[in-house]
Write a structure and sequence with these properties.
Strand content: 25-35%
Bound molecules: flavin-adenine dinucleotide
Shape: elongated
Radius of gyration: 23 Å
Largest sheet: 7 strands, mixed
Helix content: 25-40%
Structural class: alpha/beta
Number of helices: 8
Number of strands: 23
Length: about 350
Amino acid sequence: MNNIYDLTIVGLGPVGLFGSFYAGMRGLKTIALESRQEVGGALTAVYPDKFIYDMVGFPKIQAKKLIENLEAQSSHFDNDRRLGFKVDEIIKNSDNLFEVSCGSDTILSKSILVTTGMGAFTPRKLPLKNIEKYEAQENSGIVYIVRNKERYYGKKVVIIGGGNSALDWAHDFDGNSQSVSLIHALPNWQAHEDSIHKLETSNINVYQPFTVKEVIGEEKLEKIIIQNGKSKESIELEADLLLVNIGFLPSKTTFENIGLELNRSEIVVNPATMESTTVPGLFCAGDACSFDGKLKLICIGSAEAAIAVNNAATRIDSSAARKPKFSSAFFSKDMHKKEDQKSA
Ligand SMILES: Cc1cc2nc3c(=O)[nH]c(=O)nc-3n(C[C@H](O)[C@H](O)[C@H](O)COP(=O)(O)OP(=O)(O)OC[C@H]3O[C@@H](n4cnc5c(N)ncnc54)[C@H](O)[C@@H]3O)c2cc1C
């Protein structure tokens, strides 16, 4: 007989991680699958070093630190987890169990929580030939994600892009790095107004509309050649770092095969339960779900994960209370007992 889980969580971004913690609170036998080798979703893939200011109880917290905290929180429970497994299909079998292929294994569960957010992340690459040697390591010169911003303080930083991420990084490096240049191919920015206005009073060298034509350097990046899209004027810039922020290639799995109602590529749910409107037992939370009034924020997605897990618990066992125990009561009694048993 195959091992049957109560819940399979697909995607370990912030919402899946909190869902995993909550599944432990509800005593659900849970497995979580994540396509990347690293958990954290957008927070580790897109903006690990940025500060988040709208997390309940944190005046500010760095994105990667929030994920570390969520990891610590979910580690209160011994849920199974597999990293590096992208789920391409979910099937409901004749026993009403969900089936998900994971390598050579088939995972069976009574319910599913989809927390796949924006999908699996692949940064859009700089469309130039023979640049692999500059992308090989974080100190080779071309990076798509900043992991250690202090490494580039005091250096010559060039950033490509016109969105929030590119402008935020330009402002972050301004004053900390030897020089900051911002290159954008289009005449308009795709960023917040205040960030655009801040450019006027900054020391950032703005090149617009310019594109990168060539990157130069022996072992590491040394210079880049940029060209004005209108006048065709070329300029040579010295660079220790070229940060490419030109977006991500979509790699979203929508699991349509199982009969989900979708709004564009998002799973339509009943917000009272976070259950799919068409597939009973399949729940969805975070950026992957859709309902009237949906807000794509971490605090909201975390609440949706808690709602989903509580409803999954009563669906699996109709005698289980939908209202959970308060964590303060749970941890002070049951959990301490459990932890004492573990250490005995
Ligand atoms: C630059 C930027 C700044 C932001 N700042 C804030 C902020 O200050 N405050 C705030 O509240 N929100 C902020 N957000 C939004 C916030 O990051 C998202 O709302 C949040 O990440 C959603 O979490 P999630 O877990 O639903 O999805 P994601 O973070 O997208 O995580 C989804 C996870 O699922 C995995 N996955 C996807 N498909 C599969 C598959 N088929 N199989 C297995 N795994 C899969 C992915 O690899 C990923 O790890 C920001 C977003 C961006 C881009």
